[in-house]
Amino acid sequence: MKWPSHGGQPQAMKKLCNIENDKEILDFSANLNPLGPPTWLKEEIIQNLDSLTCYPDPSYSRSSSCIAEYEGASNGQILLTNGGAEAIFLAAKLFEGRKAIIVQPTFIEYERACIHYQIVTEDVFLDEKSDFQLPLQQIFEKMKEVDVIFLCRPNNPTGTVVDEESLKQLLNEGRNTGTYIVVDEAFVDFLPFSIPSLTRWLASYSNLILLRSLTKMYTIPGLRLGYVLANKEVIEKMREAQMPWSINAFADAVVPRLLEDRTFIEKTHHWLKLQSTYLFEKLTDLDFYCSTSKVNFYLLRDNLNPNRTDELFHYLFLHGILTRHTHNFKRLEGEYLRIAIRSEEENKQLLFYLQKWRNEQ
Ligand SMILES: Cc1ncc(COP(=O)(O)O)c(C=O)c1O
User: Which part of the chain is the Aminotransferase class I/classII large domain (predicted)?
Assistant: First the structure.
């Protein structure tokens, strides 16, 4: 079977798996916040419909100022982007024709961006045995020869978070070797407040580049909104490489209100804590492995049938539950399923069918 390269494509998956077009599907394959978008967002976009006929401010100065204030950074350290995806490609463009390390298994777009900009890549691997923590020594051995390291924190697809101490060591070593560390923080807003973003390190580490996406937290994949945080020189270079008017007027218009809506973030944290505690407890009881995720998705494997993950994928899909295969995540090779944390009702449905699967084995 030719597996699609990203989650969130229920119609395409139905076709691939010969499932009727109109069958209702619960989509656990996309890692979007089920509480979003915030209720006011559609109305706010409608209110801004007249922006359709004007070019947006090319420097997006109002949105940049709001982000700067929100992050405790300066305007010059921010670049608004067309989703996290554009941020990844702009970051890669800085290192065109040079050498990179990618910390795998991770989001496929770092590798695609490197290929696009003729960057020679070498992979290092996080693995389950070390709870997906950084293989620091291995990275240090290669670091002199590389210009940039791409890593994702919290990581997609594991949901795990590499520890701060290792990252500090990486950034310090990067200062000696002239290596930049690009950290994709697309899911950082889902982390408990006790695990903060790395923004506060920007002042001390000029080799740190942070990539952000508003897509996941606010459930706005169609709007396309993200940003980069880095030192002023890096941001200036990225700005020069960016297409003009890359961010549409509606996305630009809603930035201030999105960032002001702390209640939405708090509600999300409350939901996630409740649901993740509940799910991980039940799944462990049923003898499923779950990665020690700190965010809104996790890796799952049936401990009693570790070689039957594809079968489990199809079993769940036939029962109307779409999960994300891991065939195109290096070294995972389909051994796990990536599953989003959804509403209480949906999570219960998932547990129901996993229990049923267990009973039928
Ligand atoms: C780790 C990571 N970074 C960036 C992106 C892209 O985000 P956006 O939709 O904002 O471009 C994704 C999307 O799945 C992702 O998983």
Answer: 24-351
pLDDT per residue as tens digits for the range 262-300: 999 999 999 999 999 999 999 999 999 999 999 999 999
Residue having the nearest C-alpha atom to atom 3 of ligand 1: 186
| Same domain membership, residue 287 and residue 176 | no
Tokens of residue 110, six digits: 């770092």
Looking at the CA of residue 6, tell me the nearest atom of ligand 1.
14
CB of 213 sitting under 6 A from ligand 1: yes
In a domain, 4, yes or no: no
Phi-psi map region of 245: left, alpha, beta (phi>0 left; psi -120 to 50 alpha): left
- Mutating to test ligand 1, I would choose from 107, 228, 294 the residue with most ligand atoms within 8 A of its C-beta, which is 107
Which atom of ligand 1 lies at the shortest distance from residue 88's CA? Answer: 4
Domain check: are 96 and 205 in the same one?
yes
Instruction: Tell me the per-residue pLDDT of 282-291, one tens digit each, with 9 for 90 and over.
Output: 999 999 999 9
Q: Which amino acid is at 86?
A: E
